[in-house]
Amino acid sequence: MHRDPDADAMGSSLGWASYLLRRGHDVTVISPTDYAQNLRWLPGADSVLVYEDAPMKKHCKQLIQEATLICCLDFSALSRLKDLGKLVQEAPGIKMLVDHHLEPELFADPDFMFWDTQAAATAQLVYDLIKILDGSAPDAAAPDAAPFDVPMSECLYAGIMTDTGSFRHGNTTPEVHLAVADLMRSGLDISRVHRLIFDNSPLSRLQLLGHVLSEKLHVLPEYRTAYMTLTADELIQYQSSIGDTDGIVNYGLQVEDVVMSALFIERKGEIKISFRSAGDFSVRDLAFTYFSGGGHRNASGGRTQLTLAETIEQFLSILPEYQLRLQAVQ
Ligand code: 5GP
Ligand code: MN
Q1: CATH assignment of the domain containing 231
Q2: pLDDT digits (tens), the chain, 330 positions
Q3: What is the span of the domain harbouring residue 138?
Q4: For the chain, is the Cβ count within 10 Å smaller at the N or the C terminus?
C-alpha cells in the first residue's frame, strides 16, 4: 500500500490479504510508513509490518526479495512507496497492481494489472476481483465458502465508504451500492465501521480543526478557492499525530461557491498538500503539473521542498491560469 495509508489503502490491502490467506497462501502486509490511529481496529491491522520502523526494515526487505507475488494496492507510481519503491522495483517476484489512480507509471506485470480509474475505491476493485476469482474457485459451491466474511467486509467497506465520501461523491455508482449490499449480507455492521473511522478522534484533533477553521481558513472568492495552512509548530501545539489532519481539507469545500480547497501542512521537512474540488475541475492536473503529485480529479495531493510561505506564493501565482476553469464549474 502507499505511504501514509488511508482507509482505502489499508482496507483494500487487508481485505485482499485475508482472501489470499483463506486460499492457503502465505501473506504479509507491509505499509511503507506508520498509519492513522483510527485504522488500527481494522481486522488484521495488528499484523501489518511498518517498513520505516527501524527493526522491521531488514525483515521487510527479505520478504519483498523472496516474494513470489508482490501485490501493490491503491497506488500506481512507485514513488508513493517512498524508500520501498526501489526494493519493489528490483525484486524478482511478479508485481500485481490493483488500483484506481490516474498516474500512468507501468511497473506491474501486464497480465497482473487490475486497474480501473473509474472505480470508486481500490476496495471496490478487490471486491470485484474476489467475486471473479471465487466464481472459479474449486470450492465455490461449498456452503462455508461465502466469499466475504465480516472481517473482510469491514475492511472493504471502510475503503469504499471513505473514498466515496460516505457515498456522496460522483464516483458513487450503482455498482458501489450493489457491492455494499452484498457485503452487508455477510452481517457487516456499517454504523460500527463509520463510527470507528469518523467518530474516533482524540479531543486534540477536534481542537486542531477548530483552530484551522477559525484562524487559518482563507477564501479567495475571485478564484472560488479556499486554502488552509498548518505549521509544524501548530501540529506540535495540538499534539497532532499521523492521520489527524485527514479530512480537514474537505471543510474548505463547504464554503458557499467554493469549488477548490487546499490544505498545506509543514511536516517532516517538506510541505504536504491536499487538494479537493467540486464538479469537473481537476485538482489532479494541478497537483501533477505544479506540486509533484497526483491522485484523482476531485481529490489529489502533492508536496514541495519549499518553505510554507514559498509554497503558498507558488499556489497563489498559478491561480490566474485556472481562473476561467474555476469560474466555469457548475
Ligand atoms: P490526501 O489529500 O488524502 O492525502 O490525498 C488525496 C488523493 O491524492 C489520494 O488519492 C492520494 O493517493 C493522492 N495523493 C496524495 N498525495 C499524493 C502525492 O504526493 N503523489 C501522488 N501521486 N498522489 C497523491
Ligand atoms: Mn483509494
Answers
A1: 3.10.310.30
A2: 999 999 999 999 999 999 999 999 999 999 999 999 999 999 999 999 999 999 999 999 999 999 999 999 999 999 999 999 999 999 999 999 999 998 778 899 999 999 999 999 999 999 999 999 987 666 555 545 578 999 999 999 999 999 999 999 989 999 999 999 999 999 999 999 999 999 999 999 999 999 999 999 999 999 999 999 999 999 999 999 888 999 999 999 999 999 999 999 999 899 999 999 999 999 999 999 999 999 999 999 999 999 999 999 999 999 999 999 999 999
A3: 7-198
A4: C
99 plus 30 within the same structural domain: yes
Q: Which three cell numbers stand for residue 297?
A: 480529479
Domain end call among 145, 168, 198: 198
Q: What spacing in Å lies between the alpha carbon of 77 and ligand 2's midpoint?
A: 13
294 lines ligand 1 (CB under 6 A): yes
User: Which residue lies with its CA nearest to atom 6 of ligand 1?
Assistant: 300
For residue 96, what are the β-bridge partners?
71
User: Residues 150, 124: one domain?
Assistant: yes
Quote the CA–CA distance of 230 and 66 in Å, as a whole number.
41
For residue 1, tell me if it sits in a domain: no
Cα–Cα separations (whole angstroms), residue 106 to 115, 146, 303, 321? 11, 34, 22, 30
Domain boundary among 142, 163, 198: 198
Q: Is the ipTM of this complex over 0.90?
A: yes
Q: Per the structure, how many domains does the chain have?
A: 2
